[in-house]
Amino acid sequence: MATTDKASPRERLLDAATELFYRDGVSIGVEALCKSAGVSKRSMYQLFDSKDEVLAASLERRASGYAARIAAGVDDAGTPRERILYIFEQVEKVSVEPGFMGCPFLAALVELKDPEHPASVVARAAKERMQDAFRVQGELGGAREPELLARQLMLVFDGANARAGAKLETLDGLTLETVTTLLDAGGVA
Amino acid sequence: MATTDKASPRERLLDAATELFYRDGVSIGVEALCKSAGVSKRSMYQLFDSKDEVLAASLERRASGYAARIAAGVDDAGTPRERILYIFEQVEKVSVEPGFMGCPFLAALVELKDPEHPASVVARAAKERMQDAFRVQGELGGAREPELLARQLMLVFDGANARAGAKLETLDGLTLETVTTLLDAGGVA
DNA sequence: CCAAGAGGAAACCGATCGGTGTACAAGCTT
DNA sequence: AAGCTTGTACACCGATCGGTTTCCTCTTGG
Lengths: 189, 189
Description:
The structure is a homodimer of 189-residue chains.
Chain A: H1 9-24, H2 30-37, H3 41-47, H4 51-73, H5 80-95, H6 104-111, H7 118-140, H8 146-165, H9 174-186
Chain A binds a DNA duplex (30 and 30 nucleotides) through helix 3.
């Protein structure tokens, strides 16, 4: 009932999974998940092999959404430097919203310690896609070492997400300032 | 049986808790914890009010150990810049060890989403102590904005820990290079 | 109008969760 | 030796875990 009510059971499950796994962690029970989705456990286990697969699928869908938006934004107006900074503006913006708890992919990787877990594989792939996007923008911007720059940006990105999500930091310009320093030092116009 | 066998039940419990909560996450059961510590559940609940308190106490002890080492290292040989870089050398070194899973305090904060959880309070205090240490070194090193620098260093520190712990990054100089850039830009000699 | 499948409600499975209660065996101190 | 604390062993509690099964009610195509 927290999500769309007219969608297919599969969509409703993924919606609920996205929200509950993020808010309450991967230890949320199948019972609560199905109840929130308005779907019977029986249906869930017909659509997915296990709870773990539901989690993996929900992360996969989230990652696809991000990838689509990033791909669409590649030829947006602005310089590569502006596009990189825009990402961190968005991070700072969402980080102050009420339910913010950091990057969902990183959270999943931390919670399920197993790097071979299906959801871990999906999450890692999503993070790598983002790093690739940073590297591409670095190349376009004339970075001396685009790969190094991309790894540095991911460091800041994940650090900011983790610290803001854990209520250790409020950002408010911190990542912008830091990223600017790194872009300057890296030779990005 | 994995830890010292001649210590007090309390110490054995904290030893086991430190290891198991880090390796398997906060969802490790009381049964497994006590068995690993060689302590009966009855004793555990006489020494601690709840499993959550055991977790908080184990983090507290770990934080005290770190604080002692940092306090001892403040008047070590070397410049503030060297002392800051030394911390990140250590991070890069332990990050390649087999059982490494990132910063235990950050992991606890991510897993227990509740910022009011007793263990969360302990973990956050530990992180703040570290940020203070960075700021002090920044002041000693002549940083233009010591507080900003400390926050940036924590961003890199936590980002590196999270990413290396999640097997997303291998570091190998990445943090040293990044921190050097930030120290240069921040005016630390 | 009726058959067939989809999907929901809920009982049920064994296992485990955090936490207690009880009984008993050591080591102290006096 | 008596009495006390300390700690263990273990059964037990209700709740919940992930997952399965049964039953029944809808919708929909023919």
